[in-house]
Design goal:
The protein has helices at 9-12, 23-42, 53-58, 67-70, 73-95, 134-139, 149-160, 178-185; strands spanning 2-7, 45-49, 100-108, 118-121, 142-145, 168-172. It is of the alpha/beta class and 187 residues long. The chain has one domain (2-185). It has a 4-stranded parallel β-sheet with strand order 2-1-3-6, with helices on both faces. A two-stranded antiparallel ribbon has the order 4-5. Helix 5 packs across helix 7.
């Protein structure tokens, strides 16, 4: 029986991420990502890459955002559109449970889109030009309990399809990196 795990886009392709400049943060994420990938490969888990809504809307040269900015009808509709084929694949795997075991979904905590347990919040908007207090505005970004917008939409779609009790959603990265590794260890 093949084990199936759906993963956030940047777990397999870090090139889609917002450009980071803190080398210590980059190294920590990369080490955890590689540890996760090795464990998945060694456990013979088949990985299905979720689409990245930020990359598919804004491209590679985008600024960092917070979930508050993505919490609008336009971004949610885009998430729903790109998740529709994922839900269809999930349903096919679940219908063939003699061949496949769906382990669930893995998000990336801290992401405004793919955070499963934690996402980033701030009241950001407007132009940078001529703005005062920009340092204070940027410092207002906080990591808090909650899901990013793509994961929120995923949960809504799973509920609509009656699948929310059939799949787990876990997370990788801060602030509880061991949680996702435990998901793999329970296999």
């Amino acid at each position: 029986m093949k084990k199936i795990l759906f993963v956030s886009h940047c777990i397999l392709n870090t090139s889609a991420k917002v450009v980071l400049y803190n080398q210590q943060e980059i190294d920590a994420e990369e080490n955890l990502r590689k540890k996760f990938m090795r464990k998945a490969i060694d456990s013979d888990i088949q990985l299905i890459q979720l689409p990245c809504p930020e990359f598919t809307l804004y491209g590679a040269r985008r600024w960092g955002h917070v979930s508050n900015q993505f919490d609008n009808v336009f971004f949610r509709t885009h998430c729903r559109d790109i998740l529709t084929p994922i839900i269809q694949q999930l349903k096919e795997y679940l219908q063939n449970d003699d061949m496949f075991e769906v382990l669930g979904f893995v998000g990336v905590d801290g992401s405004p889109s793919c955070g499963a347990d934690y996402t980033c919040y701030a009241d950001w908007y407007g132009s940078f030009d001529g703005r005062t207090g920009l340092d204070e505005t940027l410092a207002s970004c906080k990591l808090g309990k909650g899901s990013g917008i793509l994961i929120q939409v995923l949960k809504e779609m799973l509920e609509e399809e009656g699948l929310s009790d059939k799949v787990r959603i876990s997370s990788l990265y801060a602030p509880e990196p061991e949680k996702c590794m435990k998901m793999l260890e329970s296999i």
